[in-house]
Design a protein that fits this description.
By secondary structure, the chain is an all-alpha fold. It is built from six helices and no strands.
Length: 240
C-alpha cells in the first residue's frame, strides 16, 4: 500500500473537499455563513483540489517510471545471468572431453582437436549493469568484467592449441608414422624435435589450465551473481 499512498491521500482529500464545499454551500444557503464566503470557499476548494490532483498524477507517473526502471534492471540481471550459464555450459562440455586424458603426453598427442562453437554472442553488456554502482557493487561489476575476459582467454587457448595440433603436430605424427605407435618417450621426442614436442605439451597444458580455471570461477560467479540479484530485488525470479 505504501506505493499507492499519494493516490489514496489525494482521493481522500478530494472527498473531503467535496464534503466541505457541500456543507459550506448548505451553511451559506441557510444564512449560517455570510454570502461573500462563497467565493473564498470555492476558490480554496478548486485550488486545493487542482493541486491534489496534479500531485497525485505526478506521484503516479513517478511510481510507474520506477516500476519500469526496476523491470529493466531485473531483465538486465537475468540476461547477464543467462549468458554466464551458457558460458559455463560451453566450458563444461569442453572439460568433459578433456577429462578423459590425464597424462601430459596424452593431453598433447591423444586429445583430438576441439573446435568450439562461435561464442561471440555470449558477451555481457556491462554498461547495462552500470546501475550496480548505485548499490555499492562496483567491485562486483569489475569481477564480472574480468570473468568475461577469462572466458575469452580460455576459448583462445583452445583455438591456439587446435591450430598448432592440426597444422603441425598431426602432419608430423603422420610423417613419422607415430599415430598409435607405442614408442619410448625419448624416441618420440627425438623424432618430433624439441619445438614440436615441447610446443604440443605446453600448448595442451596451457589450454587445460585456462579451461579448468574458468570452469571453477564461472561456477562461483554464477552463485555470487544470483545472490547479488536476489539481494537487490528479493521478490523477483532469476534463472538458475
Amino acid at each position: 500500500m505504501k506505493d499507492y499512498q499519494p493516490e489514496l491521500y489525494g482521493f481522500l482529500l478530494a472527498i473531503g473537499l467535496l464534503n466541505l464545499w457541500y456543507l459550506t454551500g448548505v451553511a451559506i444557503e441557510e444564512s449560517v455563513l455570510p454570502k461573500n464566503y462563497d467565493f473564498v470557499i470555492k476558490f480554496f476548494t478548486v485550488g486545493v483540489g487542482g493541486f491534489a490532483g496534479a500531485y497525485s498524477a505526478f506521484k503516479l507517473k513517478s511510481y510507474q517510471d520506477r516500476l519500469s526502471e526496476e523491470q529493466r534492471r531485473v531483465s538486465a540481471l537475468n540476461w547477464a545471468l543467462f549468458i554466464l550459464i551458457r558460458k559455463y555450459n560451453a566450458i563444461e562440455n569442453m572439460k568433459a572431453r578433456m577429462d578423459k586424458y590425464e597424462r601430459p603426453f596424452d593431453r598433447a598427442f591423444s586429445l583430438p582437436a576441439m573446435v568450439p562453437a562461435p561464442y561471440d554472442e555470449l558477451k555481457i553488456e556491462v554498461n547495462k549493469l552500470s546501475f550496480l554502482v548505485d548499490f555499492d557493487k562496483a567491485n562486483f561489476l569489475m569481477e564480472l568484467s574480468l570473468e568475461q575476459d577469462r572466458f575469452r582467454q580460455a576459448m583462445r587457448a583452445i583455438e591456439i592449441r587446435n591450430e598448432f595440433y592440426v597444422g603441425e603436430i598431426q602432419p608430423a605424427l603422420s610423417h613419422y608414422a607415430l599415430n598409435g605407435c607405442p614408442l619410448p618417450l625419448v624416441e618420440f621426442q627425438e623424432k618430433l624435435g624439441e619445438r614440436l614436442f615441447e610446443g604440443a605439451i605446453n600448448g595442451a597444458e596451457n589450454m587445460y589450465e585456462h579451461v579448468y580455471k574458468t570452469s571453477d570461477t564461472l561456477d562461483k560467479m554464477i552463485q555470487s551473481f544470483r545472490e547479488v540479484a536476489k539481494e537487490l530485488y528479493p521478490g523477483k525470479k532469476f534463472v538458475g
